[in-house]
């Protein structure tokens, strides 16, 4: 690991004999991290624990310690493909999101490999990415700390929640979200050559200005060695036919396919599992019927978005565009819309 990351590491001061086990749980309403600090390593003449390190991203201020994170009150937000997500409120009133990665899926990743990967992921900074502020590992426990986004996910926006009924988003909202997501994905692909690998509506959060921001990015590659299959039919539908095959690595074109599925979900308001077998020629008519479109201009714009989605979700990866090309397509659609049509240009 680079010295910058090592310099910004907050380490627990626990006795080697005092702690035997590593875990992270809600018990009750408190995040508990127990550390094994018995293994040490010398870097530059200083002892550095191989486990129990809270590593802040390069350039980030140490706004809290590991002990403060351990004491944080916790609310479980949900369980997903890569693990369990918590909303954590620290004693200094700072609220963060903590992702506890699934230990079974991470079982094939050693500590050094996780460190190297997260060092690269933590460098990514873009207005349409939820930034990784810090990460932690101790034995089999891996935690990732993100900024907390209070406005929910695109999934909730599309499909509603327990207290609200969903209705189709206005087509200009679909266009804005699509552009934001495409911006974030294109940045990941070009700036780092990494892959999101787990794009879906629940992994697109709404920022303070209701901009769409990607989360859980670049983590799926860590679980590729796992034989555990995703049992959620909607999550599985975001994966292209080849990516669904056991042992197939995700690629940039896998992200493009997932984007196409997400775009269809945006314009149709339907879960991916509810439109898995629609032939491309049927898409515009189905979307028009679902949305009750009777405006010629809106129908044209929606048709253009459906065309982009269909191209992205081609069964052949070679036939799919790059995310940069997808972004340009969406921006051309946006440029065809005037201010009077309800979107900023």
Question: What descriptive keywords fit this protein?
Answer:
345 residues, alpha+beta, Phosphorylase Kinase, domain 1, Transferase(Phosphotransferase), domain 1, seven-stranded antiparallel sheet, two-stranded antiparallel sheet, 10 helices, 32% helix, 19% strand, disordered N terminus
Give a verbal description of the structure.
There is one protein chain. It is globular and about 60 Å long. Helix 5 (171-191) packs antiparallel against helix 7 and helix 8 (283-291) packs across helix 9. It has 2 domains: 3-147, 2-Layer Sandwich (Phosphorylase Kinase, domain 1), CATH 3.30.200; 154-341, Transferase(Phosphotransferase), domain 1 (Orthogonal Bundle). The strands form 5 sheets. Strands 1-6-10-11-9-8-7 form a 7-stranded antiparallel sheet. It has a two-stranded antiparallel ribbon with strand order 2-3. A two-stranded antiparallel sheet has the order 4-5. 32% of the residues lie in helices and 19% in strands. The model is unreliable at 1-51 (pLDDT under 50). The chain is α+β, with helices and mostly antiparallel strands and 345 residues long. The chain has 10 helices and 15 strands.
């Amino acid at each position: 690991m680079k010295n910058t990351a090592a310099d910004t590491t907050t380490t627990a001061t626990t006795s080697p004999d005092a702690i035997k086990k590593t875990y992270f749980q809600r018990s009750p309403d408190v995040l508990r991290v127990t550390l094994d600090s018995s293994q040490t390593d010398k870097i530059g003449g200083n002892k550095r624990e191989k486990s129990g390190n809270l590593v802040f991203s390069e350039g980030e201020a140490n706004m809290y310690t590991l002990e403060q994170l351990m004491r944080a009150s916790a609310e479980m937000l949900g369980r997903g493909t890569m693990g369990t997500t918590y909303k954590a409120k620290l004693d200094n009133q700072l609220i963060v999101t903590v992702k506890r990665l699934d230990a079974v899926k991470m079982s094939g990743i050693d500590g050094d490999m996780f460190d190297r990967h997260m060092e690269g992921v933590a460098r990514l900074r873009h207005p349409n990415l939820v930034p990784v502020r810090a990460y932690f590992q101790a034995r089999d426990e891996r935690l990732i700390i993100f900024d907390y986004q209070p406005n929910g996910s695109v999934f909730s926006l599309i499909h509603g929640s327990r207290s609200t009924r969903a209705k189709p988003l206005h087509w200009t909202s679909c266009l804005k979200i699509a552009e934001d997501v495409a911006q974030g994905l294109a940045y990941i692909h070009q700036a780092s050559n990494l892959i999101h690998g787990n794009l879906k509506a629940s992994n697109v959060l709404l920022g303070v200005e209701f901009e769409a921001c990607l989360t859980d990015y670049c983590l799926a590659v860590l679980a590729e060695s796992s034989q555990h299959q995703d049992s959620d039919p909607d999550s599985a539908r975001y994966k292209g036919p080849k990516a669904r095959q056991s042992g197939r690595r995700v690629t940039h074109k896998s992200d493009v396919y997932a984007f196409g599925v997400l775009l269809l979900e945006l314009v149709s308001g339907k879960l991916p599992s509810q439109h898995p077998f629609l032939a491309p020629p049927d898409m515009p008519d189905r979307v028009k019927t679902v949305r009750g479109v009777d405006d010629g201009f809106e129908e044209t714009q929606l048709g253009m978005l459906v065309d982009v989605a269909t191209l992205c979700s081609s069964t052949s990866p070679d036939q799919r565009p790059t995310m940069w090309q997808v972004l340009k397509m969406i921006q051309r659609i946006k440029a065809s819309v005037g201010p009077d049509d309800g979107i900023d240009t």
